[in-house]
Structures are given as structure tokens and as C-alpha cells.
Design goal:
Number of domains of chain B: 2
Shape of chain B: elongated
Helix content of chain A: 55-70%
Number of strands of chain B: 7
Oligomer: heterodimer
Number of domains of chain A: 2
Largest interface: A-B, 73 and 74 residues
Distance between the termini of chain B: 35 Å
CATH class of the largest domain in chain B: Mainly Alpha
Radius of gyration of chain B: 24 Å
Largest sheet of chain B: 5 strands, antiparallel
CATH topology of the largest domain in chain B: Four Helix Bundle (Hemerythrin (Met), subunit A)
Number of strands of chain A: 0
Distance between the termini of chain A: 68 Å
Helix content of chain B: 55-70%
CATH architecture of the largest domain in chain B: Up-down Bundle
Chain lengths: 134, 270
């Protein structure tokens, strides 16, 4: 079979080309997303630099669990912008989008769940009240 | 951009003679590769989480990574923020190269792709510096005192500070006594031990493996981009009538940025 990326007049290669007017629109969106990604990174670094995990006496900062969840949410937002806009997955057909995303999300959630469950057990074994450590 | 998401009948879509996803073979399998690569990175980062979740303590990002080139210590997360920014910007220049390709604007593609390559080289160089610093360690290393491991530091008035972990510091006379009675010292990091987390040697192993694996991806991405750049300059894609190859290496390059977003969160922020 002929390589479809070498065929010049294939519907899903050439129709992807666009004119200058359309390009202006796309570039506007690119710069907007750039701004959002930069802003999120700046916020993350400021939070990381100024909110401490422990206070001066070494006790847990009660805010920290929320900060942690905040970091995770911001990370996923950043990732979504990169995948959907920069990698154009949001512009592909819906069927293709889910062929890529669904198996990954399913598998990685399972992996995270099983690893956290397992390591919670090991934490009890090594550091818990009845730990095997003397 | 998508080829055409207008209404096409199911029989035509799934009846052969073309991709039902309206996406070329090469792009589709670049995506498949990226999914498998993302699972590799997902596995590595989950393993990191596994080790961290069961560890008694873990080094704090802004204390471990607080050095700036030429400026010394005391700049928490600033350098890695700069690295992250460079990588995001190089991702943006890559999108702009792809966009220029859709307009068959050869000069535009060359310009933006060249910026992308330069940004990638800057990032790899920064990671090299970061590794160098991580391996050589802070200026004074760690000591084993009767109260556990402590990272040695001096404030601007040249007074001794012992960082005991969990944000706890000991200063003054007590610090001097602990310092003099130290029974072991450690400096820098390697695969056996590291001064940042003397009780969890795996910390440095994970750092080397995950950032190293990512750095290797960046390096190969730079090489791919450079090869495609040469092809663009030679006019290969102009003759072909579309710049889809730029789009394909672009996907790989964005993926590298995507992985870094997660590495940044788990190694530096949390």
C-alpha cells in the first residue's frame, strides 16, 4: 500500500492546510494558551517557594494537603492544554480522541490506586505502630 | 488541525480505503507510540510515588533545588522554573512551526523550528548543570549527629545552621556541639547514598533515572527536530505539498513538554 503521508491530494493531509486568515486565528489561540501555561507555572513556583510543608517547629503545615491537591489540579490543567491544543488532539475526530485517552486514563488510575494501596501497607509494616523496625 | 470533521457516512468511514479516524497512518502511530511512552513514564512516576509514600521522610524540593548558576544558593525553585519556562516556550515555537507548515510557509517553518532546536539544547544544558550540582551537592554536605542526619549550612552572618529535615533547623551553641560530635559525613549524591535524604538512598536513584530518561527524550527530540529542519531547508516537504512530518515530530516534542510538567510537579513542587 502506498504511504498515505506521501500522497499529495489525500483528504486528511492536504485539507489540513489553511490560509493566512485562518492562521491568524490559530496563532491567537496559541499565544493565549502560552499565557495560561506560563501563568500556571508562575503560580506553582510562588506557592512552592512561599508555602512551607512544615512550620518552623517541624510540625505539619495544615494547609499543605490542600496545596498538594492544588498542585495536582494545576498540573492536570496544564497537561490538558498541551494535549488538546498544542498536540491538536481536541481537533481530531472524537473516536480517535477516546482511542488515545480512555485506555491511558483507565490504566494509569488503576496503577496509581494499586501502588498507593500497596505502599500504604508497606508504610505500616516499616513505620507503623507495630512496625518490624525496633 | 483535523483533516475534516464534517459529516461522513459510517459506511464510507469504516468501509476501507482510508483511515476511519481521518488521520494519516504516520500520525496515528506516532500517537500510539506516545501512549506507550506515556505509560512508561507513568510507571516510573508511580514507582516514585510508591517509594515516597512508604518512606519515613522525603527531601523538600525547594530546599534541595535552590541553586542558580553564577549566583549560588538561596533561590528556591527559580532555576527549574526557568527550565520549565524554556521548555514551554520551545513547545510554543513548535506549534508555530506546525502552523506555518499548514500555510506552506517554508521560511516560517525554518525560523520556528530553529528556535525549537535552540530551546531544546538550552533545556538539555540546564539539566546537565542541574545534575552536576545535584551530584556535587551543597557546599557543606550532611553530617550524622546524635539527633540524626543534618544538612550543614551557614547563614549570611556566617553562623552554623543544621537542617534536620521537616523544615526544622538548629542553630547556635547546640548546633556547634552537634557539629563537633558528628560521627559521619556525606556529600553530594550517587546511586548508593545522597546527602539530601540520607535515610532514603532511592531518592537519588529515582531522580537520576526519571530526569535522565526524560533528558534522553529531550536529546533525541532535538536530534529529530534537527533532521526535519534539514529536510525543510532542502525543500523535501515543499515538494511533497504538506508539512506533516513537522507535525509528527511536533507531537513527540509536545509529549516531552507534557512529561516534564509531571516531573516538575512530583520532584520539585510536592
Amino acid at each position: 500500500m502506498e504511504r498515505d503521508d506521501l500522497v499529495q491530494d489525500h483528504s486528511y493531509s492536504v485539507s489540513a492546510n489553511h490560509d493566512e486568515a485562518h492562521g491568524v486565528e490559530i496563532r491567537k489561540k496559541i499565544w493565549k494558551v502560552t499565557g495560561i501555561l506560563t501563568l500556571i507555572t508562575v503560580i506553582e513556583v510562588l506557592i512552592g517557594a512561599f508555602i512551607k510543608q512544615y512550620d518552623s517547629s517541624g510540625a505539619d503545615n495544615l494547609l499543605w494537603p490542600y496545596v498538594k491537591i492544588g498542585f495536582l489540579v494545576l498540573t492536570v490543567v496544564k497537561a490538558a492544554y498541551i494535549v488538546l491544543v498544542f498536540m491538536h488532539l481536541g481537533d481530531e475526530r472524537k473516536s480517535f480522541k477516546w482511542v488515545i485517552l480512555a485506555p491511558y486514563i483507565l490504566f494509569i488510575l488503576y496503577l496509581i490506586f494499586i501502588c498507593l494501596t500497596e505502599s500504604s501497607y508497606w508504610f505500616e509494616v516499616f513505620q507503623g505502630e507495630n512496625s518490624i523496625n525496633p | 488541525m483535523a483533516g475534516d470533521s464534517d459529516n461522513i457516512s459510517r459506511t464510507e468511514l469504516w468501509g476501507g480505503n482510508g483511515s476511519p479516524f481521518r488521520i494519516s497512518y504516520g500520525k496515528q502511530w506516532m500517537w500510539m507510540f506516545l501512549v506507550s511512552d506515556a505509560l512508561t513514564f507513568g510507571g516510573l512516576l508511580t514507582a516514585y510515588g510508591f517509594a515516597r509514600h512508604q518512606a519515613p521522610s522525603w527531601p523538600i524540593g525547594e530546599e534541595t533545588f535552590n541553586a542558580m548558576p553564577f549566583l549560588g544558593n538561596g533561590y528556591p525553585l527559580l532555576y527549574v522554573a526557568l527550565m520549565t519556562f524554556i521548555l514551554i516556550v520551545s513547545s510554543v515555537t513548535m506549534v508555530l512551526a506546525v502552523e506555518a507548515g499548514h500555510r506552506l510557509d517554508k521560511k516560517g517553518v525554518i525560523k520556528w523550528l530553529l528556535f525549537t532546536v535552540i530551546g531544546g539544547l538550552f533545556f538539555v544544558g540546564s539539566q546537565g548543570w542541574e545534575w552536576y550540582h545535584f551530584i556535587h551537592g551543597t557546599h557543606f554536605g550532611s553530617i550524622l549527629t546524635s539527633e540524626g542526619w543534618a544538612v550543614v549550612d551557614y547563614n549570611s552572618a556566617n553562623e552554623l545552621i543544621l537542617r534536620m529535615g521537616r523544615g526544622l533547623t538548629i542553630t547556635g551553641e547546640k548546633a556547634a556541639i552537634l557539629f563537633d560530635s558528628a560521627t559521619a559525613t556525606m556529600q553530594g549524591a550517587n546511586l548508593i547514598e545522597n546527602e539530601y535524604a540520607p535515610l532514603v538512598p532511592q531518592y537519588a536513584n529515582f531522580f537520576f533515572f526519571i530526569t535522565g530518561f526524560h533528558g534522553f527524550h529531550v536529546f533525541s527530540g532535538v536530534v529529530f527536530n534537527f533532521i526535519i529542519l534539514i529536510n525543510v531547508v532542502r525543500g523535501v516537504y515543499e515538494k511533497r505539498g504538506h508539512y506533516e512530518m513537522v507535525e509528527k515530530v511536533g507531537l513527540y516534542w509536545h509529549f516531552i513538554d507534557l512529561v516534564w510538567v509531571f516531573v516538575f510537579t512530583f520532584f520539585y513542587l510536592l
